[in-house]
Amino acid sequence: MAISNDKHAVIWTRTKDGPLKMVDLIVTPQQTRFSYTREFIDYDASYSDKHLAGGVSLLAPPQQYKTEQVTYAAKDSIPLYPRLMSMLPARNENNIQRRLYTRLLEKSDSPPKPGLDTDWEILLLSAHNGIGHLDVFRDDLVAEHYYHDSGQRHLLTSRSAYWKQIQAEIQNTVCDIDSAELLDAFGPTPSVGGMIPKILVAIPDTSHWQGEFASPGTAEVDGVKYVDVILKIEPIGYEGVLALEAHCLELHQQLGFEVPPFWLSEIDGMRVLAVKRFDRSEQGCPIPMESFYSVFAIGDKYFQSNADTNLQELAYRIARIGKVANLDVRATQQELYKRLLVALFTGNGDLHLENLSFLGGAEQVKLAPVYDPAPMRAWSRHNTRFAVPLIFDDKVGGLRENMIKLGEAYQYTKKQAENLIEELAEKTKDYVFKIETLENVPEQNKTLLMKTVKAEREKLVL
Ligand SMILES: Nc1ncnc2c1ncn2[C@@H]1O[C@H](COP(=O)(O)OP(=O)(O)OP(=O)(O)O)[C@@H](O)[C@H]1O
Ligand SMILES: [Mg+2]
Fold it and tell me: Which of 84, 150, 274, 292 has the smallest number of CB atoms closer than 10 Å to its CB?
């Protein structure tokens, strides 16, 4: 008898009325298949706040599919349904969470094979209470235990084994913790993608944060209100990146963009940046959130990477999402075009498709607020103009003329695009001077960033 290689799991979500099963899921080396439960379809239809409603992906709306099966054909570069892939810690050896989960699995009784099997086990270990509203479990029993125990799970503090282990990984020191302890500390913790080490915690909602933190979802400690944040920890090799990111978050705020509150601080000698999560409602309910990358990779079988399009085509892809989801296409395109211009004026070459997301489900969705606007061009190995390329046409002119031309795809007239460039040039003119005054950023990175930004300004402004 052939042994089936099918993998089974379930996805649940947390509503204001409690946890609810969303889908049954099957993954094979060839495809991902899932179908919504009747309870979920009915509950989803009854939401009064449509922003909170939403299925596994914007392109798998429950009210359209109902109980019909959703299928995705695996490809080499993206073997799992892309929305699930985005819940895995990044596949690079510097990713702390991947390192720790892999180590845990290697020590288990039957370690999974490298590749899809390992990814699958990491997903089951860590894909709950992460970014967005999907919680993945091996089966319903595990889900029920998880929600039942969530009130009494270990409390996170800077003295917990979890934090000590993160600290040891970042500082490259040895932390003497055995695998049972490691499982206890990391088993229930969600993982987050991206390059910079980060964890999900709650911190006091006060203006002067001293580095205290607690488990995500904590609403209050000793009468002080807490908020859920994503906590980024500065890694060796990227000194100054968090100060630069905070500087750019502040600039976006001043320019009128929607930006989450943030706090720059130090914990145990490590520099950290906490950013308030916008994928949680004021009541703590998870809000669906999906990266552009996930949406495009689900909708397009040829899509391979988080920069696999060009800026003009990106505008048309957004317009196509507007045909299946309730999205204000024009507002989204125009907002994105402004972000692209600010990226040029600040030296943020890293606006790839995982640094842009949709917030909300298919029935009421919008562009997520600004996140990760770090000016990565301060590092020579990241010094590219745009992660998603601008198709440059010399016949149109230089950078200025090509950006103005690009504005058409984003529903701006030539005159409006020219005015925007003028306005943003004026409002960002002190940016380079402020970079110079930043503490904790190495001189060579400041110099490269200032030089790069000045050169771009010269090409953009008449
Ligand atoms: N304020 C926020 N609220 C909710 N989700 C967020 C927030 N900020 C970031 N995220 C999510 O966390 C992920 C990682 O965060 P972020 O992009 O800031 O980190 P990064 O490691 O610097 O990424 P990169 O690899 O692009 O440099 C994002 O892709 C996004 O899904
Ligand atoms: Mg990012």
Answer: 150
Which residues have a beta carbon within 5 Å of ligand 2, which is an ion? 194, 355, 372
Residue ending a domain, among 123, 152, 181, is 152
Closest CA to ligand 1's atom 6: 277
Look at residue 225 and tell me if it is in a domain.
Answer: no
How is residue 74 written in tokens? 């695996």
Q: CA 443 → CA 158, 236, 270, 350, 431, distances in Å?
A: 31, 16, 20, 21, 16
Q: What is the pLDDT of residue 185?
A: 66
Choosing from 119, 152, 185, the residue where a domain stops is 152
* Nearest ligand to the CA atom of 293: 1
10-61 pLDDT per residue, tens: 999 999 999 999 999 999 999 999 999 999 999 999 988 888 899 999 999 9
Domains of the chain: total: 2
| Ligand 1 geometric centre to CA of 371 (Å) | 6
Range of the domain at 23: 7-152
Distance CA 357, CA 37 (A): 26
For atom 25 of ligand 1, which residue has the closest CA?
194
Which amino acid is located at 358 in the chain? F
Q: Does any domain span residue 162?
A: no
